[in-house]
């Protein structure tokens, strides 16, 4: 191998150099492709934009830093002819002068790969530039590592402050003998889920930064070793390999990511904060039912789902990833509701409700009955003291309305406490299909008006007077199609608007608060609603044109309602 260390004692003369394109004296750049020196104006206006131009200060500083180990093309004499060498034969791995090439053009070096002095210096310039580039990008990554560390500290502090504040409010509520502290569970669910996602995002970002740092460090060392190499053949071979690597898209993307400081972009990391009404799908499960028309959950988090179309009721359990069917019942249902004991009430569209005992698991008769009516909806109040049903006359078709359309309130023993049917001699309901209630005694009834599911929400006070009617969001031009209804821990009302893929939030008196487009959550045709004992919201969907597959069950965390 030829040693490329320079001769010592060589004198150098400093010459003033002008821009090769306009003769300007203020040289700033060297084009590696053209091997010319240019000013900034020519670089921006005349020089091809796709050529590699390098700040001459970077080249000069690195050449100086590595002057003990490397240099420009070796300044040495040919051992055979005594002339300065000006090229290198890669095939023979020998330094050549002009006479070497002339004498052996048709002999020893015919068709050999000859590298000229200019080509060598060009490759050296590229390696110097790439090393400086890698070194700078390593500094950017170091800054990003420190920044993400500080941001993670801030978000961690915010999370624990919010958690501490929620627990303090919960403790104060207990001291004041406020019974309903479920809203605090919902807040904790929300921030815990958000915090889990925040930590996950931080870890992914830190992992990506560390992987890029290691890669750049390896590249930086390779460039440095090539620049310091004193073996001509090895230098050329390694320089060309690295030149090919730097042309690859993966390398260009890495450099671009560093130089545009994408590592310092933390927009992908969510904030752990509680704002206005917000819903996040925490889990999603695909069931073997085509539709989830009904959901019910008790204090044991025993979960029931039902499909009216396929006449199927299932008892299921959900874990982190799966939904497990524990038992099935072939029965067509029109509503379900659970007691805190785990017993389930079923509407079979007959004059009495059926019941499934939590202990026995068998369907049997219940003590909740109506005469000459078919029960269409059932709801158990939160204190488990009342059962409220919606019913219609058992004769004639559903539409147009015929006969009695009523809401009946019963006690735990099945005794009728109140029957709500008319308001100033006008029928209150067309087809009561879903019911919920609030702690102030108000009853919310989804009243279906026609076959296309167009409907409204009728709000009754505890004494049965019509308090208000909600007919949908005023800005929505489509018909309001309410199908499912449930009460939040803070006495807000959630209503699913199936055909419009929406969720309406009302206050305890039926006034509109918030409109949520569930498509933004990935929920198409939302239908049924329920809350678990840990105050997570469950939303069941049905199939349709935009959702042709199986019914899906969504576990949702929320805040601000």
UniProtKB/TrEMBL annotation:
Residues 14-56, 78-117 form the B box-type domain. SMART domains: BBOX. The keyword Lipoprotein does not apply. This is B box-type domain-containing protein. One of its GO terms (molecular function) is zinc ion binding. Keywords: Metal-binding, Zinc, Zinc-finger. PANTHER family: BONUS, ISOFORM C-RELATED, MEIOTIC P26, ISOFORM F.
